[in-house]
Specification:
It is built from eleven helices and two strands. It is mostly helical and 234 residues long. The longest helix has 25 residues.
Length: 234
Amino acid sequence: RLSSGVCRREASGLDRRSCSVVASAKVPSSARQGGLGDIAVKSRRSTLLLTLVGSELLLRQAVMPSPASADVLKDALRGFTRPDVSVQDAVVILMDARSTLREIQGIAATPPDSGERFRARAFWPAYAKRLRAVAEAAPVVAGVVTGAGDSEETLGAMYGGKAQGAGVADTVYAGLGRVLTISGRTIRPEAQAGPEAAAGAEAAIEGLLLRVPAPLLEAAEQFRVERARAAGQR
């Protein structure tokens, strides 16, 4: 579901500019693990998603299914690409992503030959993995702040959602699409070269979090504090 590359279906097939987070798809990751999911599960889920989408396109060309049956298939595909997470988990994931983006900005602001950049080469995939979790979290949080009964209504059709026009979560997807590669497996060279892309994505997430009710923010932050404390005791 995310940004500069977008995941949308055309009559001729999948748009080549598939968005980073949707291409890497949703992992049923728990915020209690810092927003990090299981790679093997993600790969199987991504493969199944692509298989289902390809099957739909072939079926559409062969028998031209009715709009109603197409909607049923779209809803089924959304379940694979953006499974639901709890509201607190979603807020925690966004907070974790915001922190990750700040780390990326710090590295990207250093000289090209800095030691920080050299060491960061080993961490770009891990940073990308944390950011991918935003695909499932952003619509949930956007649904809370807008009161939408269906979180898919917070995303525009460009990102596979149901909103008429631009959705509330679209800016988050667009921002992260300028940071993640199309595969979603690492950070774009442009985002590594300078802090602007990560800063824009952070601003988009921050703008959404500012609209979250204070009690939810406090509970999520407290969870992150306790998680960090527990990790330090291991």
